[in-house]
Specification:
Elements: H1 2-14, E1 27-31, E2 35-39, E3 43-52, E4 64-71, E5 78-80, E6 86-89, E7 94-103, E8 108-116, E9 130-133, E10 137-143, E11 146-153, E12 163-171, E13 183-188, H2 190-193, E14 199-202, E15 208-213, E16 223-227, E17 235-239, E18 247-251, E19 255-256, E20 262-268, E21 275-282, E22 286-294, E23 300-305, E24 311-319, E25 332-333, E26 337-341
Parallel strand pairs: 1-9, 2-10, 19-26
Antiparallel strand pairs: 1-3, 3-7, 4-5, 4-8, 6-7, 8-9, 8-10, 11-12, 12-15, 13-14, 13-16, 16-17, 18-20, 20-23, 21-22, 21-24, 24-25, 24-26
């Protein structure tokens, strides 16, 4: 009986599909040289050859090799070769050959980490990666490496005021600009989320590029700037806009019997979903939390104060850092107000 039951339970399992998926075979990658010296904004081409079978080959028959940092201090953690055209075979197997343009920002040691039929986008997963057998290493000796810095004016941007961001490209070895106008790529909001600034801009001879914006309470207005390379950028920086707490509050009553609950109503500009707390002054300088709440979709909130004794009591609302609040918000207090306990 038990044997029959067991057989009945096993038989349906025999009809289940069994995965036959296999890991992509490793490809052989070789480089025309094992080390390279690169200065400033230049790149140096190194010939890359790929051999083996790549089943996911797209219609253009090209592959790309992704290089990743394994040692050193360069600011560029990963970069891609140019499209490597198929020069022998049909891809199963085949031989692909082309170049990787090595920037000074890759200073240190990098290795050929994987092969893909589609261009690598830094920070995003590969589309159809294939591993590299015994990945070759490349030592990059970078000098006068470029660095991108930025300055937001003002540092915390009010919702009703215009603002600007200045990007500067400097030589890390001298701490000075390169003394020539540079072609860069600028973007903001969606372009930065996609990690793809696309607007071509030109610096002055001091390496500065400035973009001004009108007052706007909507969006975080993160901007970004890249030093372009071939095929991907060789340096990149994002600059988020910091916004004030922009919190105000007032009690519904300025006096109430001791122990009575007094609603405190307030507003946080662009603060829907943010946590807020009510603080009471203890002694001369110590603010302590005595209540908490949440900003509604209307950007308004209500907290409850409760005078603990007779006399004038100092309160304020406070916007703390919160997972439910935009990361561009700078924590801060409202105006101070009083409730007199009677």
């Amino acid at each position: 009986m038990h044997r029959t039951l067991a057989a009945l339970l096993v038989v349906p399992l025999l009809g289940l599909p069994v995965s036959t998926a296999k890991a992509a075979p490793a490809l052989e990658v070789s480089l025309s040289r094992g080390d390279v010296a690169v200065s400033s904004l230049n790149t140096v081409p190194v010939t890359v050859t790929v051999k083996g079978s790549y089943a996911e080959l797209p219609p253009h028959n090209n592959v790309f090799v992704q290089f990743k940092r394994i040692a050193g201090t360069g600011p560029l953690a990963e970069f891609s070769s140019m499209a490597l055209p198929l020069v022998e075979g049909d891809g199963t197997p085949g031989v692909w050959r082309g170049v990787v343009n090595v920037p000074s920002t890759a200073n240190g040691a990098v290795e050929a980490a994987m092969v893909d039929g589609y261009e690598f986008i830094p920070g995003e997963p590969a589309s159809a990666p294939a591993p590299v057998a015994d990945p070759p290493r490349l030592t990059v000796n970078g000098v006068h490496i470029p660095k991108v810095v930025s300055l937001l004016t003002p540092k915390v941007v009010p919702y009703d005021k215009p603002w600007s961001v200045r990007y500067t490209v400097l030589d890390t070895q001298t701490g000075k600009p390169y003394g020539t106008r540079l072609k860069l790529l600028f973007g903001y909001e969606e372009r930065c989320l996609e990690n793809r600034p696309s607007e071509s801009v030109l610096t002055d001879t001091s390496g500065n590029y400035v973009r001004s914006f009108a007052a706007n309470k909507n969006g975080d207005w993160t901007s970004c700037l890249a030093i372009p390379g071939k095929p991907t950028k060789i340096a990149y920086l994002e600059t988020p806009v910091k916004r004030p707490a922009a919190i105000s509050a007032a009690p519904s009553k300025t006096s109430a019997p001791v122990g009575t609950i007094v609603p405190v109503n307030g507003t946080v500009i662009s603060g829907a979903g943010c946590a807020v707390v009510l603080q009471r002054l203890y002694g001369a300088t110590a603010w302590r939390e005595v209540g908490s709440g949440k900003v509604r979709d209307s950007e308004r909130f209500t907290l409850n104060a409760q005078p603990p004794y007779k006399g004038t009591i100092y309160y304020r609302a406070y916007l703390p850092a919160s997972a439910f609040c935009s990361s561009d918000k700078v924590p801060g207090p409202s105006n101070t107000f009083t409730i007199r306990g009677t």
